[in-house]
Design goal:
about 575 residues; alpha/beta; Rossmann fold; 6-stranded mixed beta sheet; 3-stranded antiparallel beta sheet; globular
Length: about 575
Protein backbone atom coordinates (compact mmCIF):
# COMPACT_ATOMS: atom_id res chain seq x y z
CA UNK A 1 0.00 0.00 0.00
CA UNK A 2 1.29 3.43 -0.90
CA UNK A 3 0.52 6.95 0.20
CA UNK A 4 1.33 8.40 -3.20
CA UNK A 5 -1.59 10.42 -4.49
CA UNK A 6 -3.00 9.13 -7.74
CA UNK A 7 -5.74 10.91 -9.68
CA UNK A 8 -9.00 9.07 -10.23
CA UNK A 9 -9.30 7.26 -13.56
CA UNK A 10 -11.08 9.38 -16.16
CA UNK A 11 -14.06 7.03 -16.32
CA UNK A 12 -14.60 7.47 -12.57
CA UNK A 13 -14.57 11.25 -12.50
CA UNK A 14 -18.32 11.50 -13.05
CA UNK A 15 -19.30 8.78 -10.55
CA UNK A 16 -16.90 10.33 -8.03
CA UNK A 17 -19.52 13.02 -7.51
CA UNK A 18 -21.13 10.38 -5.28
CA UNK A 19 -18.57 11.43 -2.72
CA UNK A 20 -19.99 14.92 -2.65
CA UNK A 21 -23.55 13.62 -2.52
CA UNK A 22 -22.53 11.39 0.37
CA UNK A 23 -21.13 14.34 2.30
CA UNK A 24 -24.15 16.50 1.55
CA UNK A 25 -27.01 14.09 1.99
CA UNK A 26 -26.05 11.47 4.55
CA UNK A 27 -27.63 11.82 7.96
CA UNK A 28 -25.41 13.59 10.47
CA UNK A 29 -26.56 11.46 13.42
CA UNK A 30 -26.91 7.71 13.69
CA UNK A 31 -27.30 7.69 17.48
CA UNK A 32 -29.79 9.68 19.55
CA UNK A 33 -29.86 9.81 23.34
CA UNK A 34 -33.58 10.47 23.61
CA UNK A 35 -36.80 8.78 22.44
CA UNK A 36 -37.91 9.69 18.95
CA UNK A 37 -40.17 8.74 16.07
CA UNK A 38 -39.43 7.19 12.71
CA UNK A 39 -41.42 9.22 10.20
CA UNK A 40 -40.82 8.11 6.62
CA UNK A 41 -37.36 6.83 7.47
CA UNK A 42 -36.26 10.03 9.25
CA UNK A 43 -35.68 10.48 12.97
CA UNK A 44 -37.75 13.14 14.70
CA UNK A 45 -37.75 14.10 18.39
CA UNK A 46 -40.74 12.53 20.11
CA UNK A 47 -41.87 15.81 21.67
CA UNK A 48 -41.70 17.62 18.30
CA UNK A 49 -43.93 15.09 16.55
CA UNK A 50 -47.27 16.85 16.78
CA UNK A 51 -49.29 14.12 15.08
CA UNK A 52 -49.57 10.50 16.08
CA UNK A 53 -47.91 9.40 12.86
CA UNK A 54 -44.62 7.55 12.83
CA UNK A 55 -43.12 4.62 14.69
CA UNK A 56 -41.73 5.13 18.18
CA UNK A 57 -37.99 4.45 18.49
CA UNK A 58 -35.98 4.01 21.65
CA UNK A 59 -32.79 5.98 22.41
CA UNK A 60 -29.77 4.57 20.63
CA UNK A 61 -28.93 3.79 17.03
CA UNK A 62 -31.45 4.89 14.41
CA UNK A 63 -31.11 1.98 12.00
CA UNK A 64 -32.61 3.60 8.84
CA UNK A 65 -30.03 6.40 8.98
CA UNK A 66 -27.22 3.91 9.64
CA UNK A 67 -28.30 1.74 6.73
CA UNK A 68 -28.55 4.74 4.39
CA UNK A 69 -25.09 6.06 5.27
CA UNK A 70 -23.40 2.65 5.13
CA UNK A 71 -25.01 1.94 1.75
CA UNK A 72 -23.59 5.19 0.39
CA UNK A 73 -20.13 4.31 1.68
CA UNK A 74 -20.35 0.87 0.10
CA UNK A 75 -21.25 2.41 -3.25
CA UNK A 76 -18.21 4.64 -2.98
CA UNK A 77 -16.02 1.66 -2.04
CA UNK A 78 -17.26 -0.32 -5.05
CA UNK A 79 -16.48 2.64 -7.29
CA UNK A 80 -12.93 3.06 -5.97
CA UNK A 81 -11.59 1.33 -2.82
CA UNK A 82 -8.66 3.75 -2.57
CA UNK A 83 -10.98 6.77 -2.63
CA UNK A 84 -13.00 5.20 0.21
CA UNK A 85 -9.82 4.52 2.20
CA UNK A 86 -8.70 8.12 1.77
CA UNK A 87 -12.15 9.39 2.74
CA UNK A 88 -11.89 7.40 5.98
CA UNK A 89 -8.44 8.89 6.63
CA UNK A 90 -9.76 12.37 5.81
CA UNK A 91 -12.84 11.93 8.01
CA UNK A 92 -10.77 11.13 11.09
CA UNK A 93 -8.11 13.82 10.76
CA UNK A 94 -9.91 16.70 9.10
CA UNK A 95 -13.53 16.63 10.25
CA UNK A 96 -15.72 16.61 13.33
CA UNK A 97 -18.26 14.23 11.75
CA UNK A 98 -18.41 11.71 14.57
CA UNK A 99 -20.89 9.24 13.12
CA UNK A 100 -19.28 9.39 9.67
CA UNK A 101 -16.00 8.41 11.34
CA UNK A 102 -17.68 5.40 12.98
CA UNK A 103 -19.27 4.24 9.72
CA UNK A 104 -16.03 4.71 7.73
CA UNK A 105 -14.06 2.80 10.37
CA UNK A 106 -16.56 -0.06 10.36
CA UNK A 107 -16.37 -0.41 6.59
CA UNK A 108 -12.58 -0.26 6.43
CA UNK A 109 -12.22 -2.92 9.14
CA UNK A 110 -14.38 -5.38 7.20
CA UNK A 111 -13.91 -4.65 3.47
CA UNK A 112 -12.22 -7.30 1.37
CA UNK A 113 -8.93 -5.59 0.44
CA UNK A 114 -6.82 -6.85 3.33
CA UNK A 115 -3.36 -7.69 1.98
CA UNK A 116 -4.09 -11.04 0.40
CA UNK A 117 -1.24 -12.58 -1.65
CA UNK A 118 -1.62 -12.34 -5.42
CA UNK A 119 -0.16 -15.47 -7.03
CA UNK A 120 1.41 -16.28 -10.35
CA UNK A 121 0.04 -19.08 -12.53
CA UNK A 122 2.47 -21.51 -10.90
CA UNK A 123 1.18 -20.66 -7.44
CA UNK A 124 4.10 -18.51 -6.32
CA UNK A 125 3.38 -15.17 -4.67
CA UNK A 126 3.78 -12.29 -7.11
CA UNK A 127 2.90 -9.53 -4.65
CA UNK A 128 0.48 -8.64 -1.88
CA UNK A 129 -2.75 -6.72 -2.40
CA UNK A 130 -3.31 -3.35 -0.69
CA UNK A 131 -4.35 -3.79 2.93
CA UNK A 132 -7.00 -1.15 3.54
CA UNK A 133 -8.12 -2.76 6.79
CA UNK A 134 -5.09 -1.12 8.37
CA UNK A 135 -6.87 2.21 7.79
CA UNK A 136 -9.75 1.04 10.00
CA UNK A 137 -7.27 -0.15 12.63
CA UNK A 138 -5.45 3.17 12.52
CA UNK A 139 -8.72 5.06 13.01
CA UNK A 140 -9.29 3.20 16.27
CA UNK A 141 -5.67 3.36 17.44
CA UNK A 142 -4.90 6.98 16.51
CA UNK A 143 -3.91 8.89 19.65
CA UNK A 144 -2.87 12.47 20.13
CA UNK A 145 -3.09 14.09 23.54
CA UNK A 146 -5.92 16.61 23.91
CA UNK A 147 -6.96 16.08 20.28
CA UNK A 148 -10.66 16.05 19.33
CA UNK A 149 -9.89 14.02 16.21
CA UNK A 150 -9.54 10.65 17.99
CA UNK A 151 -12.32 8.12 18.29
CA UNK A 152 -13.76 8.29 21.79
CA UNK A 153 -14.35 5.07 23.77
CA UNK A 154 -18.02 5.41 22.88
CA UNK A 155 -17.12 5.62 19.17
CA UNK A 156 -14.88 2.53 19.40
CA UNK A 157 -17.79 0.59 20.88
CA UNK A 158 -20.22 1.98 18.31
CA UNK A 159 -18.09 0.64 15.45
CA UNK A 160 -18.76 -2.89 16.70
CA UNK A 161 -22.41 -2.15 17.47
CA UNK A 162 -22.87 -0.85 13.93
CA UNK A 163 -21.29 -3.97 12.41
CA UNK A 164 -23.45 -6.21 14.62
CA UNK A 165 -26.67 -4.56 13.47
CA UNK A 166 -28.57 -7.05 11.32
CA UNK A 167 -29.12 -4.65 8.43
CA UNK A 168 -25.42 -3.70 8.27
CA UNK A 169 -24.34 -7.33 8.56
CA UNK A 170 -26.57 -8.13 5.59
CA UNK A 171 -25.05 -5.30 3.55
CA UNK A 172 -21.56 -6.63 4.29
CA UNK A 173 -22.50 -10.15 3.24
CA UNK A 174 -24.10 -8.87 0.03
CA UNK A 175 -20.92 -6.89 -0.69
CA UNK A 176 -18.88 -10.10 -0.52
CA UNK A 177 -17.16 -9.32 2.78
CA UNK A 178 -16.63 -12.56 4.71
CA UNK A 179 -18.68 -15.74 4.37
CA UNK A 180 -21.91 -14.99 2.45
CA UNK A 181 -23.59 -17.97 4.17
CA UNK A 182 -22.37 -17.03 7.65
CA UNK A 183 -24.82 -16.28 10.44
CA UNK A 184 -22.59 -14.14 12.62
CA UNK A 185 -21.97 -10.49 11.73
CA UNK A 186 -18.51 -9.76 10.36
CA UNK A 187 -16.37 -7.63 12.70
CA UNK A 188 -13.19 -7.86 10.62
CA UNK A 189 -10.26 -6.56 12.64
CA UNK A 190 -12.33 -4.83 15.29
CA UNK A 191 -11.44 -7.36 17.98
CA UNK A 192 -7.69 -7.07 17.44
CA UNK A 193 -7.81 -3.27 17.10
CA UNK A 194 -9.96 -2.95 20.25
CA UNK A 195 -7.55 -5.23 22.13
CA UNK A 196 -4.60 -3.00 21.15
CA UNK A 197 -6.65 0.06 22.11
CA UNK A 198 -7.34 -1.38 25.57
CA UNK A 199 -3.75 -2.58 26.08
CA UNK A 200 -2.37 0.87 25.32
CA UNK A 201 -4.64 2.41 27.96
CA UNK A 202 -3.98 -0.31 30.52
CA UNK A 203 -0.24 0.22 30.22
CA UNK A 204 -0.72 4.00 30.48
CA UNK A 205 -2.57 4.05 33.78
CA UNK A 206 -3.13 7.85 34.01
CA UNK A 207 -4.90 7.67 30.64
CA UNK A 208 -7.19 4.88 31.85
CA UNK A 209 -7.86 6.76 35.08
CA UNK A 210 -8.73 9.88 33.10
CA UNK A 211 -11.24 7.96 30.96
CA UNK A 212 -12.75 6.40 34.06
CA UNK A 213 -13.09 9.83 35.69
CA UNK A 214 -14.76 11.12 32.54
CA UNK A 215 -17.58 8.60 32.85
CA UNK A 216 -16.35 5.93 30.42
CA UNK A 217 -16.09 3.04 32.91
CA UNK A 218 -19.08 1.12 31.61
CA UNK A 219 -18.17 1.81 27.98
CA UNK A 220 -14.66 0.41 28.47
CA UNK A 221 -16.11 -2.65 30.22
CA UNK A 222 -18.36 -3.29 27.21
CA UNK A 223 -15.42 -2.95 24.81
CA UNK A 224 -13.39 -5.40 26.90
CA UNK A 225 -16.22 -7.95 27.05
CA UNK A 226 -16.91 -7.71 23.34
CA UNK A 227 -13.23 -8.03 22.39
CA UNK A 228 -12.57 -10.83 24.89
CA UNK A 229 -9.82 -8.72 26.43
CA UNK A 230 -7.46 -10.31 28.98
CA UNK A 231 -5.83 -7.64 31.16
CA UNK A 232 -2.23 -7.99 32.31
CA UNK A 233 -2.75 -6.54 35.78
CA UNK A 234 -5.35 -6.16 38.52
CA UNK A 235 -5.16 -2.36 38.22
CA UNK A 236 -7.29 -2.53 35.07
CA UNK A 237 -10.20 -3.97 37.08
CA UNK A 238 -9.50 -1.74 40.07
CA UNK A 239 -9.61 1.51 38.08
CA UNK A 240 -12.85 0.50 36.39
CA UNK A 241 -14.42 -0.66 39.67
CA UNK A 242 -15.01 -4.03 38.01
CA UNK A 243 -15.49 -6.90 40.45
CA UNK A 244 -14.40 -10.27 39.01
CA UNK A 245 -15.60 -13.84 39.45
CA UNK A 246 -13.87 -17.08 38.54
CA UNK A 247 -14.88 -18.42 35.13
CA UNK A 248 -16.65 -21.80 34.94
CA UNK A 249 -13.55 -23.56 33.69
CA UNK A 250 -11.29 -21.83 36.21
CA UNK A 251 -9.00 -20.01 33.78
CA UNK A 252 -9.17 -16.56 35.35
CA UNK A 253 -5.95 -15.70 37.20
CA UNK A 254 -6.05 -11.99 38.07
CA UNK A 255 -8.53 -9.62 39.66
CA UNK A 256 -9.90 -12.21 42.10
CA UNK A 257 -8.03 -11.66 45.38
CA UNK A 258 -7.29 -8.51 47.36
CA UNK A 259 -8.75 -6.30 44.61
CA UNK A 260 -9.32 -2.73 45.79
CA UNK A 261 -11.97 -1.26 43.53
CA UNK A 262 -12.01 2.42 42.60
CA UNK A 263 -15.72 2.96 43.18
CA UNK A 264 -17.61 6.07 42.17
CA UNK A 265 -19.09 7.04 45.53
CA UNK A 266 -21.83 9.61 46.11
CA UNK A 267 -21.15 12.88 47.89
CA UNK A 268 -23.80 12.26 50.58
CA UNK A 269 -22.71 13.64 53.92
CA UNK A 270 -20.25 16.14 52.40
CA UNK A 271 -20.67 19.89 52.68
CA UNK A 272 -20.62 22.05 49.56
CA UNK A 273 -17.06 23.21 50.19
CA UNK A 274 -15.89 19.60 50.61
CA UNK A 275 -17.54 18.61 47.34
CA UNK A 276 -15.76 21.48 45.58
CA UNK A 277 -12.42 20.47 47.09
CA UNK A 278 -12.96 16.86 45.92
CA UNK A 279 -13.77 18.04 42.39
CA UNK A 280 -10.62 20.13 42.22
CA UNK A 281 -8.27 17.60 43.82
CA UNK A 282 -9.55 14.65 41.75
CA UNK A 283 -10.08 16.71 38.57
CA UNK A 284 -13.60 15.36 38.23
CA UNK A 285 -15.75 16.00 35.16
CA UNK A 286 -19.28 17.39 34.99
CA UNK A 287 -20.92 14.09 34.01
CA UNK A 288 -19.09 12.27 36.80
CA UNK A 289 -20.33 14.72 39.43
CA UNK A 290 -23.98 15.58 38.75
CA UNK A 291 -25.26 12.07 39.51
CA UNK A 292 -23.40 11.96 42.85
CA UNK A 293 -24.65 15.21 44.35
CA UNK A 294 -26.88 15.06 47.46
CA UNK A 295 -30.47 16.11 46.73
CA UNK A 296 -30.40 18.67 49.52
CA UNK A 297 -27.43 20.46 47.90
CA UNK A 298 -27.82 19.86 44.18
CA UNK A 299 -25.80 21.72 41.57
CA UNK A 300 -24.81 25.05 43.13
CA UNK A 301 -22.93 28.02 41.62
CA UNK A 302 -19.83 27.11 43.63
CA UNK A 303 -19.87 23.48 42.43
CA UNK A 304 -20.38 24.63 38.85
CA UNK A 305 -17.41 26.99 39.12
CA UNK A 306 -15.27 24.12 40.42
CA UNK A 307 -16.30 22.11 37.35
CA UNK A 308 -15.58 24.85 34.80
CA UNK A 309 -11.96 23.82 34.05
CA UNK A 310 -13.21 20.39 32.95
CA UNK A 311 -15.77 21.79 30.49
CA UNK A 312 -15.05 22.11 26.79
CA UNK A 313 -16.34 25.01 24.72
CA UNK A 314 -19.11 22.77 23.41
CA UNK A 315 -20.05 21.85 27.00
CA UNK A 316 -20.25 25.52 27.93
CA UNK A 317 -22.56 26.30 25.02
CA UNK A 318 -24.81 23.35 25.81
CA UNK A 319 -24.93 24.27 29.50
CA UNK A 320 -25.93 27.89 28.83
CA UNK A 321 -29.43 27.46 30.40
CA UNK A 322 -27.82 26.01 33.54
CA UNK A 323 -25.24 28.81 33.73
CA UNK A 324 -28.03 31.36 33.35
CA UNK A 325 -30.19 29.71 36.00
CA UNK A 326 -27.28 29.69 38.45
CA UNK A 327 -26.55 33.37 37.74
CA UNK A 328 -23.00 32.60 36.60
CA UNK A 329 -23.21 34.45 33.28
CA UNK A 330 -23.20 37.66 35.34
CA UNK A 331 -19.77 36.73 36.70
CA UNK A 332 -17.07 38.34 34.50
CA UNK A 333 -14.67 35.38 34.60
CA UNK A 334 -17.37 32.87 33.66
CA UNK A 335 -18.92 35.18 31.09
CA UNK A 336 -15.58 35.78 29.34
CA UNK A 337 -15.00 32.04 29.04
CA UNK A 338 -18.55 31.53 27.79
CA UNK A 339 -18.29 34.28 25.17
CA UNK A 340 -15.09 32.74 23.86
CA UNK A 341 -16.91 29.42 23.52
CA UNK A 342 -19.66 31.19 21.59
CA UNK A 343 -17.13 32.84 19.28
CA UNK A 344 -15.47 29.47 18.53
CA UNK A 345 -18.69 27.56 17.73
CA UNK A 346 -18.33 24.92 15.01
CA UNK A 347 -21.99 23.83 14.84
CA UNK A 348 -25.37 25.53 15.02
CA UNK A 349 -26.81 23.73 18.03
CA UNK A 350 -26.85 27.09 19.81
CA UNK A 351 -30.04 27.91 17.89
CA UNK A 352 -31.81 25.10 19.74
CA UNK A 353 -30.22 26.01 23.08
CA UNK A 354 -31.41 29.61 22.67
CA UNK A 355 -35.01 28.37 22.98
CA UNK A 356 -34.31 27.41 26.60
CA UNK A 357 -32.85 30.68 27.89
CA UNK A 358 -34.73 33.77 29.04
CA UNK A 359 -32.26 36.62 28.80
CA UNK A 360 -32.58 38.42 25.46
CA UNK A 361 -28.88 39.27 25.27
CA UNK A 362 -27.90 35.67 25.94
CA UNK A 363 -30.30 34.51 23.20
CA UNK A 364 -28.68 36.92 20.75
CA UNK A 365 -25.23 35.67 21.70
CA UNK A 366 -26.29 32.08 21.02
CA UNK A 367 -27.68 33.08 17.63
CA UNK A 368 -24.32 34.73 17.02
CA UNK A 369 -22.67 31.39 17.80
CA UNK A 370 -24.63 29.83 14.93
CA UNK A 371 -23.46 32.63 12.64
CA UNK A 372 -19.88 32.05 13.79
CA UNK A 373 -20.12 28.37 12.89
CA UNK A 374 -21.23 29.28 9.37
CA UNK A 375 -18.45 31.88 9.06
CA UNK A 376 -15.85 29.38 10.21
CA UNK A 377 -17.03 26.78 7.70
CA UNK A 378 -16.95 29.29 4.85
CA UNK A 379 -13.53 30.62 5.86
CA UNK A 380 -11.93 27.17 5.90
CA UNK A 381 -12.94 26.56 2.30
CA UNK A 382 -12.32 30.04 0.90
CA UNK A 383 -9.17 31.19 2.67
CA UNK A 384 -6.94 30.34 -0.31
CA UNK A 385 -9.21 31.56 -3.14
CA UNK A 386 -11.30 34.58 -4.09
CA UNK A 387 -14.72 32.95 -4.07
CA UNK A 388 -17.95 34.69 -5.05
CA UNK A 389 -21.32 33.07 -4.43
CA UNK A 390 -24.63 33.79 -6.13
CA UNK A 391 -27.76 32.68 -4.27
CA UNK A 392 -30.87 32.43 -6.43
CA UNK A 393 -34.12 32.12 -4.48
CA UNK A 394 -37.12 30.70 -6.32
CA UNK A 395 -40.26 32.57 -5.19
CA UNK A 396 -42.55 31.44 -8.01
CA UNK A 397 -46.08 30.11 -7.47
CA UNK A 398 -44.86 26.52 -7.32
CA UNK A 399 -42.98 27.41 -4.14
CA UNK A 400 -46.16 28.27 -2.23
CA UNK A 401 -46.02 26.34 1.02
CA UNK A 402 -42.26 25.84 0.73
CA UNK A 403 -40.88 29.37 0.60
CA UNK A 404 -40.69 29.62 4.41
CA UNK A 405 -38.38 26.59 4.46
CA UNK A 406 -36.13 28.38 1.98
CA UNK A 407 -36.02 31.41 4.26
CA UNK A 408 -35.08 29.33 7.30
CA UNK A 409 -32.25 27.56 5.46
CA UNK A 410 -30.89 30.82 4.09
CA UNK A 411 -31.00 32.46 7.51
CA UNK A 412 -28.75 29.65 8.79
CA UNK A 413 -26.07 30.00 6.13
CA UNK A 414 -26.00 33.45 4.50
CA UNK A 415 -24.55 35.12 7.60
CA UNK A 416 -21.42 33.06 7.06
CA UNK A 417 -20.41 34.90 3.88
CA UNK A 418 -18.51 38.18 3.57
CA UNK A 419 -20.98 40.65 2.07
CA UNK A 420 -18.58 41.82 -0.64
CA UNK A 421 -18.51 38.31 -2.16
CA UNK A 422 -22.17 37.47 -1.62
CA UNK A 423 -24.81 38.13 -4.28
CA UNK A 424 -28.48 37.32 -3.59
CA UNK A 425 -31.52 37.58 -5.82
CA UNK A 426 -35.08 36.27 -5.67
CA UNK A 427 -36.96 35.49 -8.86
CA UNK A 428 -40.26 34.53 -10.44
CA UNK A 429 -40.48 35.91 -13.97
CA UNK A 430 -38.61 38.99 -12.73
CA UNK A 431 -35.40 38.99 -10.72
CA UNK A 432 -34.88 41.17 -7.65
CA UNK A 433 -31.45 41.76 -6.10
CA UNK A 434 -31.48 41.50 -2.29
CA UNK A 435 -28.88 42.86 0.13
CA UNK A 436 -28.75 42.19 3.88
CA UNK A 437 -27.88 45.21 6.01
CA UNK A 438 -25.20 43.24 7.86
CA UNK A 439 -23.79 39.71 7.90
CA UNK A 440 -26.07 38.29 10.60
CA UNK A 441 -29.01 35.92 10.92
CA UNK A 442 -31.28 38.79 12.00
CA UNK A 443 -30.33 40.86 8.95
CA UNK A 444 -30.98 37.92 6.62
CA UNK A 445 -34.39 37.30 8.17
CA UNK A 446 -35.23 41.00 7.78
CA UNK A 447 -34.14 40.89 4.11
CA UNK A 448 -36.23 37.80 3.34
CA UNK A 449 -39.37 38.81 5.23
CA UNK A 450 -41.09 40.49 2.22
CA UNK A 451 -40.40 37.54 -0.11
CA UNK A 452 -43.63 35.64 -0.86
CA UNK A 453 -44.43 32.94 -3.40
CA UNK A 454 -46.25 33.83 -6.62
CA UNK A 455 -45.86 34.16 -10.39
CA UNK A 456 -44.02 32.18 -13.05
CA UNK A 457 -40.48 30.83 -13.04
CA UNK A 458 -37.49 32.13 -14.99
CA UNK A 459 -34.15 31.43 -13.28
CA UNK A 460 -32.35 33.57 -15.84
CA UNK A 461 -34.19 36.66 -14.59
CA UNK A 462 -32.10 36.57 -11.41
CA UNK A 463 -28.88 36.55 -13.46
CA UNK A 464 -30.15 39.43 -15.57
CA UNK A 465 -30.96 41.34 -12.38
CA UNK A 466 -27.41 40.86 -11.12
CA UNK A 467 -25.97 42.18 -14.36
CA UNK A 468 -28.33 45.19 -14.46
CA UNK A 469 -27.43 46.11 -10.87
CA UNK A 470 -23.71 46.16 -11.72
CA UNK A 471 -22.56 42.85 -10.23
CA UNK A 472 -19.28 41.87 -11.86
CA UNK A 473 -17.04 38.94 -10.92
CA UNK A 474 -13.24 39.38 -11.20
CA UNK A 475 -11.68 37.21 -13.89
CA UNK A 476 -9.35 35.44 -11.45
CA UNK A 477 -12.16 34.71 -8.95
CA UNK A 478 -14.18 31.52 -8.60
CA UNK A 479 -17.97 31.66 -8.91
CA UNK A 480 -20.46 29.23 -7.37
CA UNK A 481 -24.17 29.50 -8.10
CA UNK A 482 -26.55 28.06 -5.50
CA UNK A 483 -30.23 27.85 -6.39
CA UNK A 484 -32.87 27.38 -3.69
CA UNK A 485 -36.06 25.90 -5.13
CA UNK A 486 -37.72 23.02 -6.98
CA UNK A 487 -35.95 23.31 -10.40
CA UNK A 488 -39.21 23.93 -12.22
CA UNK A 489 -38.61 26.58 -14.87
CA UNK A 490 -37.43 27.54 -18.31
CA UNK A 491 -35.24 25.63 -20.71
CA UNK A 492 -31.79 24.93 -19.23
CA UNK A 493 -30.25 26.43 -22.38
CA UNK A 494 -31.99 29.74 -21.68
CA UNK A 495 -30.69 29.66 -18.11
CA UNK A 496 -27.16 28.81 -19.27
CA UNK A 497 -27.23 31.55 -21.92
CA UNK A 498 -27.89 34.18 -19.24
CA UNK A 499 -24.54 33.42 -17.60
CA UNK A 500 -22.73 33.66 -20.93
CA UNK A 501 -24.41 36.94 -21.87
CA UNK A 502 -23.54 38.42 -18.47
CA UNK A 503 -19.93 37.19 -18.83
CA UNK A 504 -20.29 35.18 -15.61
CA UNK A 505 -17.87 32.23 -15.72
CA UNK A 506 -19.47 29.65 -13.45
CA UNK A 507 -17.23 27.10 -11.73
CA UNK A 508 -19.94 25.01 -10.04
CA UNK A 509 -23.70 24.93 -9.53
CA UNK A 510 -25.56 23.57 -6.52
CA UNK A 511 -29.25 23.10 -5.77
CA UNK A 512 -30.84 23.36 -2.34
CA UNK A 513 -33.85 21.26 -3.23
CA UNK A 514 -37.10 22.55 -1.73
CA UNK A 515 -40.19 20.96 -3.27
CA UNK A 516 -43.79 21.84 -2.50
CA UNK A 517 -45.51 19.88 -5.28
CA UNK A 518 -43.12 18.52 -7.91
CA UNK A 519 -39.62 19.17 -9.19
CA UNK A 520 -38.03 19.94 -12.53
CA UNK A 521 -34.49 19.66 -13.90
CA UNK A 522 -33.64 23.18 -15.09
CA UNK A 523 -30.71 23.68 -12.72
CA UNK A 524 -29.12 20.25 -13.15
CA UNK A 525 -29.43 20.43 -16.95
CA UNK A 526 -28.04 23.99 -16.94
CA UNK A 527 -24.91 22.70 -15.17
CA UNK A 528 -24.60 20.02 -17.82
CA UNK A 529 -25.04 22.68 -20.53
CA UNK A 530 -22.26 24.78 -18.99
CA UNK A 531 -20.03 21.76 -18.39
CA UNK A 532 -19.59 22.44 -14.66
CA UNK A 533 -20.00 20.21 -11.59
CA UNK A 534 -23.47 19.96 -10.06
CA UNK A 535 -24.53 18.91 -6.57
CA UNK A 536 -27.77 19.01 -4.65
CA UNK A 537 -28.95 18.72 -1.08
CA UNK A 538 -32.46 18.66 0.36
CA UNK A 539 -33.28 21.62 2.59
CA UNK A 540 -34.47 19.18 5.28
CA UNK A 541 -30.83 18.30 6.00
CA UNK A 542 -30.23 21.83 7.29
CA UNK A 543 -32.47 21.05 10.26
CA UNK A 544 -29.51 19.27 11.84
CA UNK A 545 -27.29 21.89 13.55
CA UNK A 546 -24.20 19.72 13.15
CA UNK A 547 -24.89 19.22 9.45
CA UNK A 548 -24.95 22.88 8.37
CA UNK A 549 -21.20 23.67 8.51
CA UNK A 550 -20.15 20.55 6.62
CA UNK A 551 -22.87 21.02 3.99
CA UNK A 552 -21.54 24.53 3.45
CA UNK A 553 -17.98 23.30 3.07
CA UNK A 554 -19.00 20.68 0.55
CA UNK A 555 -21.16 23.09 -1.45
CA UNK A 556 -18.35 25.61 -1.70
CA UNK A 557 -15.70 23.23 -3.00
CA UNK A 558 -14.92 24.15 -6.60
CA UNK A 559 -12.32 22.90 -9.09
CA UNK A 560 -8.91 24.36 -8.25
CA UNK A 561 -7.37 23.40 -11.60
CA UNK A 562 -8.45 24.99 -14.90
CA UNK A 563 -10.26 22.69 -17.29
CA UNK A 564 -11.13 19.95 -14.80
CA UNK A 565 -14.46 18.90 -13.35
CA UNK A 566 -12.88 17.44 -10.23
CA UNK A 567 -14.40 18.85 -7.06
CA UNK A 568 -12.18 20.46 -4.50
CA UNK A 569 -13.52 17.95 -1.96
CA UNK A 570 -12.45 15.02 -4.11
CA UNK A 571 -9.06 16.61 -4.70
CA UNK A 572 -8.60 17.18 -0.98
CA UNK A 573 -9.59 13.63 -0.07
CA UNK A 574 -7.31 12.11 -2.71
CA UNK A 575 -4.40 14.14 -1.30
CA UNK A 576 -5.01 12.78 2.20
CA UNK A 577 -2.32 10.27 3.27
CA UNK A 578 -3.69 6.87 4.18
CA UNK A 579 -3.74 6.31 7.92
CA UNK A 580 -1.41 3.65 9.27
CA UNK A 581 -1.35 2.16 12.78
CA UNK A 582 1.32 3.58 15.08
CA UNK A 583 3.48 0.50 15.54
CA UNK A 584 5.68 2.23 18.13
CA UNK A 585 2.99 3.00 20.66
CA UNK A 586 0.19 0.69 19.63
Amino acid sequence: MTNNTRPLPEEQMGPAEKLLNLVLNSSAHLWHNRPGKNINGRWHPKKDSKSGKGIAVEPGMFVPAAEELYTSLLELYKLNPELMARLASYALGDTEWRDLKVACCALMLTQSRHGEPIREDDGSIAFYDDDYRTVGEAMILHYKKSSTKMLTPKAVLRVAELLETAEIATLNREAGFGDPAGNKPLLGRWNSAATKWLRFRETNQPMLEGLAASGYKETIKKIARKAGYKPKSESFFAILGWKQKQSKDGHRKIGLDNLILHKRERFDGLAEVEICETIVSQKLKYKDVVGRLPKEIGLTPAIMVALLPSLSDRDLRQLTPTLEQLGLLAEPEVNNRWEKAVADATDQRALNIAKNVRNKEVKEKLVEAADNAARSAVKQVTEDIDLHVMFLIDKSGSMEGAIENSKEVLSRILAGFPLENLHIASFDTIGTVLKPKTASRKAVQHMLEPVVAGGGTIHASAINAFYSSGVRIPEDAKLIVIVVGDEMGESPRVFARAFKVGNYHVDAIALLLNVAWSRGSTVKDCARELGVPFSEVEVAHFDDPYQVPRILQALLDVPRLPGTLTYGMVERVMRTPLLEPDVNGL
